[in-house]
Design goal:
Number of strands: 3
Low-confidence stretches: none
Strand order of the largest sheet: 1-2-3
CATH class of the largest domain: Alpha Beta
Number of domains: 2
CATH superfamily of the largest domain: K homology (KH) domain
Helix content: 40-55%
Strand content: 15-25%
Number of helices: 6
Largest sheet: 3 strands, mixed
Mean pLDDT: 84
Order of helices and strands: HHEEHHEHH
Distance between the termini: 48 Å
Radius of gyration: 21 Å
CATH architecture of the largest domain: 2-Layer Sandwich
Shape: elongated
CATH topology of the largest domain: GMP Synthetase, Chain A, domain 3
Length: about 140
């Protein structure tokens, strides 16, 4: 008998991760080579940070950011405008059973990392971290 599996809270499957990474690489290569017939899109450098694929592999959410961070809204609009051509190019390159519908979102990972660094540089946070490290060193020496 087949195992019933619940995907609630368990995160993406290996298959989702693998297909997402294949799409990310293919999309990065397509954009880098300028294979899209849109001069506005080809003049911009785009970073594709992540592609998340739905459990049925029919929807791919692409997290993109323009290199340097300038023109964030413009890049998402250009990608969305050219999503049909991008989908066709990815389908030709990867030969997936179903070419996923692509949705484009702004990748805010780098902004969050900058905010985290800023928080860690605050004096009271550094003191708390130093205290925690001292406690861990004391506990390790007692064992």
């Amino acid at each position: 008998m087949a195992k019933k599996s619940s995907s609630r809270g368990s995160g993406p499957s290996q298959r989702q991760l693998r297909v997402g990474e294949l799409i990310r690489r293919a999309l990065s290569e397509i954009l880098q080579r300028g294979d899209v017939h849109d001069p506005d899109l080809n003049r911009l450098s785009v970073t594709i940070g992540e592609v998340r694929v739905s459990p049925d592999l029919r929807v791919a959410t692409v997290y993109a950011l323009p290199l340097g961070g300038e023109g964030k809204d413009e890049i998402i609009a250009l990608l969305a405008k050219n999503k049909w051509e991008l989908r066709q190019l990815i389908n030709k390159k990867l030969a997936l059973k179903h070419s996923p519908e692509m949705r484009f979102r702004l990748d805010e990972t780098f902004d969050k990392m900058d905010e985290t660094r800023r928080l860690f540089e605050q004096d009271h946070v550094r003191k708390d971290i130093a205290r925690a490290e001292d406690r861990q060193a004391d506990e390790a020496s007692e064992e």
